[in-house]
Amino acid sequence: MHGGGWWQYITYDERTDRPHVSRDLLRRVAQIARPYLAPALLTLAAILVISLLGLVPPLLIRQMIDDAIPRRDIRALNLLALGMVLIPLLSGAIGVGQRYLNARIGEGIISDLRQALYAHMQRMSLRFFTHTKTGELMSRLNNDVVEAQRAVTSTFIEIITNTVTVVTTLAIMFSLEWRLTFLSIIIFPLFFLPARRIGRVLRRIVREAMDRNAAMNAMMHETLNVSGAMLTKLFGRQADEVARFIRLSNAVRDIGVRRAVVGRWFFMMLSAVSAVGTALVFWSGGHLVIGEALTLGTLVAFTSYLAQLYGPLGALSNARVDFAQSLVSFERVFEVLDLPVEIEDAPNAITLERVRGHVRFENVSFSYAAAERFGARLSKAASDSDDIRGAADDSGLKEDEHVLFVETRATERQWAVRDLNFEIQPGQLAALVGPSGAGKTTVTYLLPRLYDPTEGRILLDGHDLRQVTLASLTAQIGMVTQETFLFHDTIRANLLYARPDASQADLEEACRAANIHDFIVGLPDGYDTVVGERGYRLSGGEKQRIAIARVLLKDPRILILDEATSSLDSHSEALIQAALQRVMRGRTSLVIAHRLSTILAADLILVLDEGRLVEQGTHSELLARGGLYAMLYNTQFQRQLEAIP
């Protein structure tokens, strides 16, 4: 992993708790903003012009009080009044242009960061998604990206604007009356003392608010999708989930209230300091006017500049802390972008054309305990659920830290599969058989490179899978999993996911082969019927047949199948079995076999137990050995045979 989390970029002095932003962080943020250099320069130019225009109205007021009114010069008075109207209009028009440029920069950065995050997540291995809360990822893609954008388009712009305003205002104040200017500067330390103390509190509150929001988003995503909602209802835990959400929501509410109150205290202190400075200037300036050392118009103009000075100065007093804490969002984004891609193309990977389908496992071992992790600093509120607490405890993290990508510790049997050696000839049907937890699903995940072997290698037509491009490997393999997933879209869209250029005739041909065409055309909207969230508007058998049609449309040379049909009615099961026979014909097939008919038809039966290949051969050969397969046959599959009339 590049780096080790946001703390590598933003460190704190233990005595002062001051943030120190690293050059590496600023360099990476600059790279994000580099494509927007031209609009950024125009924005800075607009800021400078607006700041200079803002200095003019007090001078017009001074001219009006000291010159035009005493001399009863109506023409000058009219021109000065017109100038007081035109200058704000001009400044406002330029401000609209600046806002447009700023919005272009901000929305562009949001889009770029989201695209980079999403593209990187798509390249992550299956391990990443099995160890990551989806709600946390959504928080990175949404909340953190928006906050990161604000660091560039809001915090950074405000710092520049306020700096320009303070410098130019001080310059003109010195030109008007240097003694009052020095008096105004004397109270500057009073701006920074409360900012230094309250800034630390605000920084911690902002970070905690982000973490609590992420925890609430994760909980909502888990319980408001179809599977989570169904589980909640089946176990009657709605009240418990509502109570848990109330706790998380209240935590977000409380931290928001605390942030608002602390911010208001900060604003009140700055307002009090500004009032002291203004009173001192009026008091001293009044004496100068009475002593005729200063004109009344100059005093009025000077006090107008005080408001333009103290406001930006108050913002700048905490600018360093604001900028550092806003960059924390960039770090949360970079945490994900810096995660190493576990499975990717080798530098000289070859592209597979049409393969024969010769598969060989050579000394293949795999352990799920090899997972990566990274830590994201979260508040205790984010660790509300037991599973988060357990993850933190197992990872050796501190109590207020939570791991987004959790490291899996080795169990008593560390290896999911160990020392697998077998070979499947082109066009053969290989059946995986074994008790639950034997490693059958792991074998099916290794062939399409959802995971890479921890040891050993897998060959396809003599090519190590790690030396083959992922795109060409995926094109050769079709997989029908036990849990069929359909997008919340039309049946047509779900089928075209396998081959976007397929024609309607291609769709119908695949669906006829999968025994689902007649059902689809019987629906009111036919192929344009929306299947609902995860396909829940369809039955299990209907979803599986659509999944089979989708694989047929892809026309892979190698088929991987989890033959889980036990939950289906006999009619759906018969339709699916007939469809599968068509799918497997002429293809190399690796099937987790649950049906006796599949096992009897298999050219090779692979018997797994506790991650090891204990037997392999044909049905008659394995039955004659009297080993594990014979036991499984007698206890499980014999009942299926007896059930056949």
Question: What can you tell me about this protein's structure?
Answer:
The protein has 645 residues and is of the alpha/beta class. It folds into two domains: 21-337, ABC transporter transmembrane region fold; 417-643, 3-Layer(aba) Sandwich (Rossmann fold). Helices cover 61% and strands 11% of the residues. The protein contains 23 helices and 14 strands. The protein has helices at residues 23-33, 37-54, 56-68, 74-123, 126-130, 134-176, 178-186, 188-224, 226-234, 238-290, 296-317, 319-337, 386-395, 440-446, 470-476, 491-496, 504-513, 517-521, 540-554, 570-584, 596-601, 619-625, 628-643, and strands at 10-12, 19-21, 359-366, 374-377, 401-405, 417-424, 429-433, 455-460, 463-464, 477-480, 558-562, 588-592, 604-609, 612-617. The chain has a six-stranded mixed β-sheet, sandwiched between helices. β8 (455-460) and β9 form a beta hairpin. α3 runs antiparallel to α11 (296-317), α4 (74-123) runs antiparallel to α6 (134-176) and α19 (540-554) runs parallel beside α20. The longest helix is centred in the middle third of the chain and has 53 residues, at 238-290. The radius of gyration is 35 Å and the shape is elongated. Residues 1-19 and 371-413 have low confidence and may be disordered.
